[in-house]
Each structure stands twice: as structure tokens, then as C-alpha cells.
Amino acid sequence: MDILISGGSGFLGSAFSDEIIKRYRTQAKEVHITWLTRDSSQAHPDNITMMTYDELEKTERSFEVIVNLAGTGIADSRWSDERKKHLLASRVKPTESLLAFIARRSIKPKLLVSGSAIGWYGTQGEQPLTESSTFKTDFSHRLCDEWEQLALKATEHGVPVAIVRTGVVIHPDGGMLGKLLTPFKFGLGGQLGDGKQIMSWISRDDWVGAVIFIIEQHLAKKANAQQDSDSTANDTIMNDTIAKTAKDAPATVYNLTAPNSVTNYTFTKEVGAWLHRPTFFTLPSPVLKLMFGEMSTLLIDGQKVIPQALLNAGYQFKYPTLKEALENQS
């Protein structure tokens, strides 16, 4: 399997690359990973091929799967007007490049997995949110929705799309947990606001496992559908009729969150217990708003997001509870 990844060197892309290579080699299956980059001199593992966006415009290579993860971290700094423009551009430009590649190639990818976030739903408190839920409009929603709508244009070229709306990813190598380790280790960890806000999280192992599951499930269905199509085509030829082929391909949304969300209070206590450190401190909501401005909504306002599509598809979570996820980190 040939997989092209934008954002491959990031917190999620690198873990996905490592795991699928290890898993497929254990199963004696071939897999080849290519990372898209703007810097041809970027350091990378020996088993990864690099390709610049300029090279993508000219290449005649085909990829079975494209995984689109490129995008600047939404919580890395305050949301000034310029920052908001940058956050959007960092997602839109790579996606546009991938769409141009898809449109140009005669042999299309079998699947585009495109990143998004549970911010698509907006802040809705304790309301359970599945993939069929509606949204509340705020900056997070607009950012995610514009990214998603652009990626969905791949279906116009006959390429199925899987949108993965990711929650807070738990792993000490990065993300929210990585940023919190230092203050927690110094005994400065504590709840944010009143601590009642819901946090929808997923272990990085399960995020990687879920994306591999989505890819393999889709490719298996596509292979079965192709067999049925070949059979139908043979019948069509025998009957001297012309089969009509739909141009648009299917699109599916998946919430990549664990099935057991927690309050910020519970998250704080679990992390403190895992590190064997006290968690006496509290950062009140007004202080968070003063420190982070509009971006403080990511810390103060909760979302209870349910991974209904994954559960319905039969995905088995490796770490369904936060305690399990923390205790199994290295």
C-alpha cells in the first residue's frame, strides 16, 4: 500500500507512520509512506520517503490512500485576526494542493482521510454529540467546517473521503498532556475554571488504531464493491446495455474520541494521581480569559463527543478510560 501524508512529521502523522509500517511488516504486507513537506532538507526516518509540494505538482506517482493532517496547532497561541488567517491557510493550502493532485491523476486514490476536530460542533456543554449532531457557530466551527468542505470536494473526482474529527489526544510526547507535564510534575497542576466542563479525549494509540481501522475497513468494502461491479459489468455487456457510473463518491465522518469523556476536574485528578503529584491549584475562568482571550473557550467550555460511527463499525478501543490511557503511557 502506498500512502501519502501531509503533516506526516507531526505529533499524529509520525505515530501513524511508525505504527502502520510496524504492523504491516509484522503481517508480511507491503506499505510505503511518503511525507509531503515544504522543506526538502527536513529530517525524517530512513523508511519514509519525502516529497515537496512542488514535486507533487509534477509527479506521476499514484497513491492508494492520502492522509491529510497538515495544519498549525489551534492552541499554540492567542487568536488574533492574523493568527486566525494563518490557522485557516495552514489547512487550506495543503488541502488545495492535494485536490489539484487528485484532479490531475487518472489513477485516483481509493480514499482520502482528512483531518478535522471536534471543534466543528462548537461549544455545547454536556449535550451528547454524535456525527449526526448539529453545530453551534464559533471560530472553531468555522475553521473546521471550511477545512472539511474543501476536503469533501475530492468526492467530485470519485475519491471517497473520511473526515476524522479529533478530540484531545493523550500522549506525553505532545498535545495537551505534553504541555501539562512540567507544571504537574512541579505540583502546580490544577483544574481550569469550575472543572465541570466536559473533555472529550482519545489516546494517541487509539487515534492511530482508529485511522488504520478506517482505512482497512474502507479498502475492504471497496474491494468487495469492485467485485460486485465487475460482475454487474459482465452482465451489462452480455445484455448490450451501458452501465451508468456515479461521479460522486461517498463521504463519512468519524468522531475520534474515547467512549468515556471526563470533566476537567476528573482529568486533573487522574493526571495528578498518575504522576503522584498534588493538584491543589485552580485557574479561574476570568484569569484564563485574560491570559488566552478568545482561545480560552478551548479550556473553559466543554464538549461531550461520542465516537458513534467507530463504535457502530466495530472498532475496539485499546484504552477506553482515561486511567487506562495514562497508566499505559511510556
Automatic annotation (TrEMBL):
<comment type="similarity">
    <text>Belongs to the NAD(P)-dependent epimerase/dehydratase family. SDR39U1 subfamily.</text>
</comment>
<dbReference type="InterPro" id="IPR010099">
    <property type="entry name" value="SDR39U1"/>
</dbReference>
<feature type="domain" description="NAD-dependent epimerase/dehydratase">
    <location>
        <begin position="3"/>
        <end position="220"/>
    </location>
</feature>
<dbReference type="InterPro" id="IPR013549">
    <property type="entry name" value="DUF1731"/>
</dbReference>
<feature type="domain" description="DUF1731">
    <location>
        <begin position="284"/>
        <end position="328"/>
    </location>
</feature>
<dbReference type="Pfam" id="PF01370">
    <property type="entry name" value="Epimerase"/>
</dbReference>
<dbReference type="InterPro" id="IPR001509">
    <property type="entry name" value="Epimerase_deHydtase"/>
</dbReference>
<dbReference type="Pfam" id="PF08338">
    <property type="entry name" value="DUF1731"/>
</dbReference>
<protein>
    <submittedName>
        <fullName>Epimerase</fullName>
    </submittedName>
</protein>
<dbReference type="InterPro" id="IPR036291">
    <property type="entry name" value="NAD(P)-bd_dom_sf"/>
</dbReference>
